[in-house]
Amino acid sequence: MDQIRKYFEKITPIGDADWELFSSKLIRQEFPKKSLLLKMGKTENYLSFIEKGIVRFYIPKDEQDVTFSFSFANEFVSGYDSFLTQKPSVYNIEAITETALWRVSYEDLQMIYAGTAVGNIIGRNASEGLYLEGLKREISLLTETAEERYLKLLTDQPKLIQEISLKYLASYIGITPQALSRIRRRIY
To answer: What positions does the domain Cyclic nucleotide-binding occupy (predicted)?
Structure first.
């Protein structure tokens, strides 16, 4: 739980009373590898902070899932569109490694927003971060080739390359695993 406070204090100082209220609403949950944190068709009820682990966001397809995002330790994770609208999700979120989360429910977060000075700053920062990551990915898919996206991953997010299976990486950059293998052969 200390890593959450440290993360927030990089954004804004948190008084002990505000932290006490916020931390009293956090629930720690552990998930085994391959478990779903959010199932398509269900409504997201949590904004979570990853203590350890890696999760992927994907749309299940008959032939091959479409992976569109990953989240790592010390990052927020949520089916945020479903969380905000309180409507069912159109995708799954899966733990691809053993994962531990600190979670706050939708109802408790609304209470924190109303009852603390720092709640809105923290909420805004989390939502802005999630938005900016999504926009960056969308622009990349529209303006870069698959090879350029892979090379960018090598420099910007080496942990993706090291810790995630090639089939998930291929889906993430919008190509088949075979096409990714050809790109990797050309590069190395």
So the answer is: 31-112
Give pTM, 2 decimals.
0.87
Same domain, 68 and 13: yes
Do 44 and 78 form a contact (C-beta atoms < 8 A)?
Answer: yes
| Domain interval for residue 38 | 2-142
Query: Over 90: is that where the pLDDT of 15 sits?
Result: no
**Using CB atoms within 10 A of its CB, is residue 31 exposed (0-12), middle (13-18) or buried (19+)?**
middle
Do residue 150 and residue 95 come from a single domain? no
Verify that 36 and 127 share a domain, yes or no.
Answer: yes
Average pLDDT, the chain: 91
Sheet architecture: strand order including 99-105: 27-31, 99-105, 46-52, 76-77
